[in-house]
UniProtKB/TrEMBL annotation:
Lineage summary: Bacteria, Pseudomonadati, Bacteroidota, Flavobacteriia, Flavobacteriales
Keyword Membrane appears in the UniProt entry: yes
One Pfam family recorded for the sequence: Acyl_transf_3
Key word Transmembrane present: yes
GO molecular function, one term: acyltransferase activity, transferring groups other than amino-acyl groups
Protein name: Peptidoglycan/LPS O-acetylase OafA/YrhL
Top-rank lineage group of the source organism: Bacteria
InterPro entries reported for this sequence: Acyl_transf_3_dom, Acyltransferase_3
Swiss-Prot/TrEMBL keywords: Membrane, Transmembrane, Transmembrane helix
Length: 341
């Protein structure tokens, strides 16, 4: 498989799209509402899940043991994730309406830490005395996707077990895909539960498209132009006839994402200075929330404040990569190489 790809660019593009989408939504600034016309966090998240399916499937097949696979996944996600939760908990004690003693003796503070550390952010998303007058009180609403991502990591070995056991990869993946679509339709339309519809079973179709693209990569690339044309037609049709074409939407979007990763050659070296995507994703939400708490988008020029939010988020992403993420990944690589020698 060709190592030249622009996954780093696509992941960064999706993360930046989500940042801008949250910026106009959480700021509640009418001046920034124009961003709603050029951003779509839902598509970006789905794109992330497709890329995850492709890259994690590749990682799994190239990893000699199940233990090593889980260690690699944990090293990539957990260090920065744990840091952003604990860092936010401590830092926001300064900005809370509660005094320090009340804040750190409040059970709500420790409920936030505990539930977020086990990826159940929705159970207790807020800290005491912080963001109470914002659109949302959630400290970091972007973290909800990471429990799904972790779920994908746990499910992937089972998927590959079924693939080797049944020996009909296309059939297995198709069944999972259809099951995911059915779950989404039932929750979205029958039970009218959109929050449940977007949880792991409903997102599994995107992850499966990523796995499928990895397993059938060479076959897909041979007819990539036909696939792109058909996929574009499906995406447009799903906008006008959602009940019919939404069945094919994950496949169409996913295939375009993977083909783009190996076609946009100009962006192949995008990540040569570092992978700042994850940091940008997990740090931007609380930055916007803090600006909103003090009405900075109203007191000052909202465009200027938006630029400051972006720059602060980028700075924290760079910090996250070089101080936290890269150190843990490098430490793992050194230990792994030592064990092989």
């Amino acid at each position: 498989m060709n190592k030249n790809n622009c996954f780093d660019f696509l992941r960064f593009f999706f993360a930046f799209d989500i940042l801008l989408a949250h910026l106009w939504e959480l700021s509640e600034s009418s001046s920034l509402f124009f961003l709603s016309r050029i951003t779509d966090s839902s598509i970006a998240i789905k794109g992330f899940f497709v890329i995850s399916g492709f890259l994690v499937a590749k990682s799994y097949t190239n990893t000699p043991s199940l233990k090593e696979y889980f260690i690699k996944r944990a090293k990539r996600i957990l260090p920065a994730y744990v840091f952003v939760i604990l860092f936010a908990t401590i830092l926001f004690s300064i900005f809370s309406n509660y005094g320090f003693y009340s804040y750190f003796t409040s059970i709500s503070t420790y409920q936030y830490v505990a539930w977020n550390l086990v990826f159940l952010n929705f159970v207790h998303p807020c800290l005491p005395g912080i963001f109470e007058n914002n659109l949302l009180c959630a400290v970091n609403g972007a973290l909800w996707t990471l429990k799904i991502e972790e779920g994908f990591y746990l499910i992937l070995p089972l998927v590959f077990y079924l693939l080797t056991k049944i020996k009909k990869p296309f059939f297995v993946l198709l069944v999972i895909y259809i099951g995911s679509i059915l779950y989404w339709y039932i929750m979205q339309f029958y039970f009218n539960k959109p929050l449940l519809a977007k949880q792991l079973p409903g997102q599994m179709s995107y992850f499966v498209v990523g796995i499928f693209s990895y397993l059938y990569f060479y076959n897909l690339m041979k007819i990539k132009f036909k696939i792109v044309l058909i996929s574009i037609f499906i995406l447009i049709a799903s906008y006008y006839f959602p009940l019919i074409f939404n069945v094919f939407y994950p496949a169409a979007l996913g295939l375009i994402v993977i083909i783009s990763a190996y076609s946009l050659l100009f962006f192949n070296n995008f990540g040569k200075y570092g992978d700042f995507t994850y940091g940008l994703y997990i740090f931007h939400f609380p930055v916007i929330q803090l600006f909103r708490q003090y009405n900075l988008f109203e007191k000052h020029n909202p465009y200027f404040m938006g630029v400051i939010v972006v720059l602060l988020s980028f700075s924290l992403a760079i910090f996250s990569w070089f101080v936290i993420e890269k150190r843990f990944l490098d430490r793992y690589k050194l230990r792994n190489n030592a064990s092989q020698n």
